[in-house]
């Protein structure tokens, strides 16, 4: 599944949605203008003086302009306001629905299982681990992902999903949500909400006017001699009807766009997990029970959920999700009927056993302890042979294979992530349960192994963060040392969600400390640059929201590309004459290789920020050129792989782990 093509398709869907929205707004504005003209004619005493002119022609232009501006202000203002509310990140949306933030120190086996699945998939995908939330009061089986970009995402799961789904089924659901994260659907979903919110506001104003007109006579009844009250009610009724019609078509647009993205996310989940029975089983469980959400935002967020969050509508016009049976058929193909029959037989058998046990039988959700025992007994992947790979600093692969993995992680990536997480020391696992612990882990990644540099760094940490933080950071550095270089990025990705909890001044102070630590020995290594670059990109500023693609082709960013290609040539010790070939491959000319002394951190970061504004279909060209430069010998070192991850992260392009998973070059 082509990640970049799906990103571009999501943008095209957004463009289509905006076009349809504009048509709806134009229609509503024209209707409001007619309503304003009718109101002016009704109150004017001079409207019939000129019988030759049409009635609408007698209405002064300011009346039409006033109606137009008022309608646009309400609709556009309501849309932008709602989008701004939901653009504060996935955490804000999860909190809006009353979900509880799930921390790593949770002792609930069901919650631990969910955290493990999300962490495995995040590391396998090459994105920061999303914040995980649970809707404790929701017994239906459902979940949703929210956020404006993959690095600001949050995954929310209902209590019903935790209790009713086994690990494979839950993994299928989370894989589905990760597809929405990777393919740009979250941004599209937020815009859909904003579009409908602006139109709804017209109807809300109409309802308010209706209540004013109806209530002014007392007791909610009209006073017939109060013509102004009747006119107010009539105007409100007209606005309410306009809003209702607008919402009707808005819901149709939302449903049509959402249904196609749901099919895509189901297919991506199967590609991700290589286990179609997992997501099919989750869909079957929803069909047998329910995915309906009782939260008051269930309708507004209906297109974001894994399954239908509201009761089925008449004729299914507003259904944001395809029928369960159709989704199962698409996932399983010819095996769908056999799967459904086997599930039905299993349900009948379980029902018979439960009736034999009486009311005390275990017919409900599985007990947490039993689930924990089953998960513990699952045959996991073989233990990672760290010792064997300690001296193996490169892997053989191709640029095309690496590029194909973008946005398309496989079971191999998941196995790698699981082994990586299992190998983390207990002290590191405990540290990730708090913001302070995550801060210590991050600092530990940059502390030197020994010598004067380590002493200077320890003094910097003590001066800025205190003795306790310094001691824990040094201890975690020692605990991480046996894991080698490959553990750096997974540890960083686990730490970032907790670091986002820090207040802005604390984050700024931490970023400055990181900069001081990497400059303690007066040189910046590739690994140090990678860690600081990713940190600045992930939590160095506020939630960035949507950034419009400003560059459709690579020509307008040739200078920035030259800077990044130069960096890769020096980092990979690639022959300098490869610079010209890389630029010609991109169709660029007039650029020269930058020397190491010219490539300061600020220059590289500025180049990455500009490249982020490339259109989705232009990014793979740049990434492929970068890979071709750094992999001229078809080998990739740990440091080079980290550098590519940092470049891709800055471009909002999730690159799965490289060193463990890709096929070698055929010989």
Description:
This protein has 27 helices and six strands. The two termini are 26 Å apart. The chain is mainly alpha-helical and 667 residues long. Residues 352-392 and 660-667 have low confidence and may be disordered. The radius of gyration is 29 Å and the shape is globular. Among the domains are: 90-187 and 284-338, Zincin-like (2-Layer Sandwich), CATH 3.30.2010; 394-406 and 546-650, no CATH class; 411-536, no CATH class. Helix 1 (3-43) runs parallel beside helix 7 (185-215), helix 6 packs across helix 8 (227-273) and helix 26 (619-630) runs antiparallel to helix 27.
List descriptors.
667 residues, mainly alpha, Zincin-like, two-stranded antiparallel ribbon, 27 helices, 3% strand, globular, disordered C terminus
């Amino acid at each position: 599944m082509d990640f970049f093509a799906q990103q571009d398709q999501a943008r095209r869907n957004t463009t289509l949605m905006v076009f349809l929205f504009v048509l709806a707004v134009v229609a509503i504005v024209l209707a409001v203008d007619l309503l304003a003209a009718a109101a002016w004619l009704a109150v004017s005493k001079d409207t019939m003086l000129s019988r030759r002119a049409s009635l609408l022609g007698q209405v002064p232009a300011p009346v039409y302009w006033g109606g137009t501006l008022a309608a646009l202000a309400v609709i556009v203002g309501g849309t932008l306001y709602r989008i701004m509310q939901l653009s504060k990140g996935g955490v804000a949306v999860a909190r809006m629905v009353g979900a509880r933030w799930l921390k790593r120190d949770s002792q609930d086996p069901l919650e631990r299982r969910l955290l493990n699945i999300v962490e495995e998939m995040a590391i396998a995908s090459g994105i920061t681990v999303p914040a995980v939330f649970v809707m404790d009061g929701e017994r239906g089986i459902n979940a949703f992902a929210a956020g404006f970009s993959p690095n600001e995402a949050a995954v929310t799961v209902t209590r019903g999903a935790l209790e009713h789904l086994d690990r494979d089924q839950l993994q299928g659901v989370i894989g589905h949500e990760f597809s929405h994260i990777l393919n740009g659907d979250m941004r599209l979903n937020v815009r859909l909400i904003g579009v409908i919110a602006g139109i709804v506001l017209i109807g809300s104003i109409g309802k308010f006017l209706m209540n004013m007109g109806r209530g002014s006579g007392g007791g909610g009844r009209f006073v017939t001699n109060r013509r102004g009250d009747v006119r107010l009610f009539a105007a409100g009724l007209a606005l309410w009807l306009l809003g209702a019609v607008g919402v009707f078509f808005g819901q149709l647009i939302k449903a049509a766009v959402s249904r196609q993205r749901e099919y895509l996310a189901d297919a991506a989940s199967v590609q991700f997990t290589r286990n179609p029975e997992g997501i099919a089983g989750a869909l079957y469980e929803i069909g047998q029970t329910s995915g309906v959400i009782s939260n008051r935002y269930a309708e507004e967020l209906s297109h974001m959920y894994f399954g239908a969050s509201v009761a089925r509508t008449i004729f299914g016009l507003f259904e944001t999700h395809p029928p369960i049976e159709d989704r199962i058929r698409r996932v399983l193909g010819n095996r769908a009927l056999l799967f459904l029959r086997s599930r039905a037989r299993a349900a009948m058998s379980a029902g018979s056993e439960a009736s034999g046990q009486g009311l005390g039988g275990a017919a409900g959700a599985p007990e947490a302890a039993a689930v924990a025992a089953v998960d513990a007994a699952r045959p996991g992947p073989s233990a990672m042979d760290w010792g064997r790979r300690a001296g193996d600093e490169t892997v053989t692969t191709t640029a095309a294979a690496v590029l194909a993995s973008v946005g398309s992680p496989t079971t191999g990536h998941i196995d790698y992530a699981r082994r990586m997480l299992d190998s983390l020391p207990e002290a590191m696992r405990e540290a990730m349960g708090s913001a302070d612990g995550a801060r210590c882990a991050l600092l530990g990644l940059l502390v030197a192994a020994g010598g004067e540099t380590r002493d200077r760094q320890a003094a910097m940490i003590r001066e800025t963060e205190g003795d306790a933080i310094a001691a824990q950071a040094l201890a975690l550095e020692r605990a991480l040392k046996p894991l080698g270089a490959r553990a750096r990025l997974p540890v960083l990705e686990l730490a970032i969600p907790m670091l986002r909890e820090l207040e802005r001044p604390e984050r700024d102070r931490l970023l400055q400390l990181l900069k001081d630590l990497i400059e303690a020995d007066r040189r910046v290594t590739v690994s140090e640059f990678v860690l600081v670059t990713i940190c600045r990109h992930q939590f160095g500023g506020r939630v960035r929201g949507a950034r419009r693609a400003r560059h459709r082709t690579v020509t307008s960013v040739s200078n920035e590309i030259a800077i990044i290609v130069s960096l890769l040539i020096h980092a990979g010790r690639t022959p300098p004459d490869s610079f010209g070939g890389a630029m010609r491959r991109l169709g660029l000319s007039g650029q020269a290789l930058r020397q190491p002394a010219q490539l300061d951190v600020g220059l590289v970061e500025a180049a990455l920020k500009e490249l982020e504004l490339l259109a989705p279909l232009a990014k793979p060209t740049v990434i492929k050129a970068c890979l071709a430069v750094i992999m001229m010998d078809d080998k990739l070192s740990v440091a080079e792989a980290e550098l590519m991850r940092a470049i891709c992260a800055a471009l909002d392009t999730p690159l799965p782990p490289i060193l463990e998973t890709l096929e070698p070059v055929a010989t």
